[in-house]
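Meet our chain:
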Amino acid sequence: MTDTSMICAGIDVGKSHLDIAIHPGDARLKVAYDTAGLKRLDAFLQEHDVERVGFEASGGYEWRLMVHLRASKRPTARLQPAQVRFFAKSRLQRAKNDRLDATLIAVFTASLETMPALPDARFDRLSAEQTYLEQIEQQIALVKTFAETAVPDIVKRRHAREIARLETCRKMHMLRLEKMVRDDVDLARRFDLLISIKGIGPRSALCLIIRMPELGHASRNEIAALAGVAPYDDDSGKHRGRRKIQGGRQRLRKSLFMCAFTAAWHNPDLAAFYRRLRGNGKQHLCALIAVARKLVILANAVLARNTAWTPKYSHA
């Protein structure tokens, strides 16, 4: 059971301000999201003898706060927005503003039996660099869409030059990111193990390492759920609904599906699995999701065993 007398703080992270609430009690504080504001936050937490701190992921704005709180000895958790909103619904709370959100986060933090660990500090820079790579790729896709609808040849040539420039930036950044991973002995070993799996290339291996540090340290069901490829039941009484996937880490899942496309044709084990599902009447997308789930579970097993992948079946 949770200790309802534990003093917890909830922090709602904004672009320019932090709203802080203490539970139990009605102490509140609003500070600017800068160096001076973080110092006032420390003093406020110390003044109220706060034992736990919870804050909500806020599209990247929370990173500076997380790095700051990680340096303290106080247990701290980064909470997912969906967790907090479902908790609000369970309390029939419909109103939403920064002040109320801070209080809600504090109450939810107090209700946790165990505090989820903050991400490893090694991944702060790597995660930012991975996001930058994905943003370059999004720009490439966008300019290619523009080029498809461009009519004058001069405009098409401009788009072509911009695509070539972005492709060069992407390749250079990929090399830089891979070097950063290989400079860490543990991450370099994980990278080599992942690319030993047919279907997972360097780009996807980087994404798996950076977006899913739990890989190799969690159960197969947990890994599938984190990747967003775990099928969930939809049953009630006599009703047997169609199982479906939901949740998970969106950017990771996108990269995983690209791997599944390749693995479904070129990985001997997973290609046989895909053909068997299709032969049993499964639709292409459904079979591909199953391949993605098998693939991430395989990657988890390879890292857990610390041995390179070897196919079960060999083809002449």
